[in-house]
Amino acid sequence: MSATQLFLLIASPFIGSFISASANGWPIWGKTLRSRSHCSHCQKNLQARDLIPVFSFFILSGKCRFCSAPIGINHLMAELCALLIAIISVWVFSDTLVLASVLLGWVLLFGALVDLRTKLLPDGMNLILVISGLLVSFWQGGGQGLLSAALAVIIGFGVFFLISKIYLHLRGREGLGLGDAKLLAAGGAWLGVMAISWVILLACIIALFSMIITSVYSRKKLEAKTMISFGPALAMAIYLLWMLKNANIGLL
Is the distance from CB of 118 to CB of 134 less than 8 angstroms? Predict the structure, then answer.
């Protein structure tokens, strides 16, 4: 294992904690950077021993040291997801692409968390993913890879843009945000034109199962007007297919 891979594994839970805090503070970026970590209930500043990713949650039994208020499990899940992304990336890649893969996963995790909270996907994040995806596609496939990625960006955005306009015309309300269209375009930049249909199919399957599980757990009946965040399903589909593409399984 290289020093870079070891560093990514060690740093990933801390990165996950930062991603979670940033997603909670978006779009006010300065809030995350300027303010000290504190309990959202009693507002007391947390100590260094309370901020150790994963371990602090279990040591404190999921409660604030000062007021015993429950700590949101979303921070723990973000830390574990960031660690899982690093583990999978290190397992699949053994070259310079391991860093690109980890960063892709972490940026998608940030976008998924923001979408879950706000039902929005940051434009800046999608732009970064498109540009970096085009660069990685050129690195992997040269001019042909770049051409496929650029075409996938146009097709990916165009497909969801068209669907959103048709739905708006037929139903009189928005059913698919342009943030999702931009994220699909970003996925195309990383995966190429042949993967667009796979991304949509896998994202729909993930979203469907998530809706069923959420409905059963919350005991709320799903209705036609029920709003869901499609961004997390798209993000998961893009990252899974990126891994399958580079694991030489032969799917893409």
Answer: no
Q: Is the dihedral of CA 41, 42, 44, 49 positive or negative?
A: negative
Both tokens assigned to 146: 């770049």
| Average pLDDT value for residue range 217-236 | 76
The helix (H) or strand (E) run that includes residue 152 is: helix 123-171
Which of 64, 92, 120 is at the close of a domain? 92
54-83 pLDDT per residue, tens: 766 677 666 766 666 677 778 889 999 999
What share of residues in the chain are helix, strand, coil (percent, to 5)?
75, 0, 25
Q: CA 187 to CA 192: how far, in whole Å?
A: 8
Rounded Cα distance between 54 and 77, Å, is 9
Q: State whether 3 and 32 are in the same domain.
A: yes
d(CA 180, CA 163): 11
- Check whether residue 107 and residue 78 sit in a common domain: no
Are 83 and 125 members of one domain?
no
How far is 78 from 120, CA to CA, in rounded Å? 18
